[in-house]
Amino acid sequence: MLRLVSLGLVAATVISAAAAETLKLAGPRWSSAQRETLRSLSLASLGPLPADPSNRYGDDISAARLGQRLFFDTRLSGNGKVACATCHIASRDFQDGTPLAHGAGTTNRRTMPIAGTAHSPWMFWDGRADSQWAQALGPLESALEHGGDRTQYAHIIAAYYGDEYEAVFGRLPMLGGMPAHAGPVADSARVAAWRRMSASAQDDISRVYANMGKAIAAFERRIGFAPSRFDRYVESELAGRAHTAADSLSPDEEAGLRLFIGKANCSTCHNGPLFTDNHFHNTGVPASTSVAAVDSGRAVGARQVVASEFSCTSRYSDAKPEDCDELRFAVTEGDELLRAYKTPSLRGVAERAPYMHAGQLATLADVVAHYDRAAAAPFGHSELKPLQLSNSERRQIEAFLRTLSAPLAAPAGYLAPPNASGR
Questions:
Q1: pTM, full prediction
Q2: CA distance 204 to 74
């Protein structure tokens, strides 16, 4: 009996030693390099909200309150039916869930979400604006979006927002004698009226217009992301705590994360705490069958932002020239810009179907399959290489992406229309 016990102890010792050796070979769940990557992707690594030197009113709470009212106001359109919130729906992560945005008409691009964009140097899919306030101005004059014009908007500001505007930006210009509708827009009558105005009158109106954008930007820059289950997982993992239901990943989700930062190369472009490098890439996305015009992406957007009337270096910017390095050193030529589009944030991506710049891909599974397949670009050169993922690996990546879902983070009352007087 003693001999059998001894043999059992020896066997147990051998087994324990083997198990210990196995654990030694397996090592930690994540390598030190992987842990640093996880740390870099966590929302806890996101720095403070960066200042926008081109908008001195960006952190003015009164400007933000005015901007919120403007954001939800349908009077700021040619037909009185379109507001910023028409396409940027607060309850849908400030996008609209359609392949192409619908305002006064139908555009040729997908509505981009707003949360976290204060951290980005470029706006729109092609980066044709270099600030949130400049981005806000483009749709207001677009015939397919708001369909309005500058003097119309100045009259609306004076009639409904005069006191709020002047409390932030100073006195409004005298608008008596100004045409009801005029501006550098697609409508020939409004363009002709604009050209009949003096240069100083045009500048007065454009200043009001720019300030509208700055107020809207003051509102938008306060909209961010709340921590997701992925962030809670990283926090517990880095702290060495046991995971709970609130901060754990399933085996498939964890496998998807490993693929995301490894074999699938997703984090090459979707990196940092917002899961975007804020750059532009041609990833071979198919052309939209709903868009007739050729879309060259950043190749056109880069030239537009440099020439923009409302760029960081423009007369309506509050920045000094040395504050505008992103614009001053922007690459405006090169084959790599052809059909390149901005890397979107993946936070909340599971709630933002359809995908790509014109909603060409209907589901997350379609997106993962596209990157796995790496089809040739319609024109230009795609950066993708085939990944040769298995069906289960594609499903695991999709499972991980769903762990990035979380409510938006914003001040109280920001995600609903304000109670505006005069409405």
A1: 0.91
A2: 23
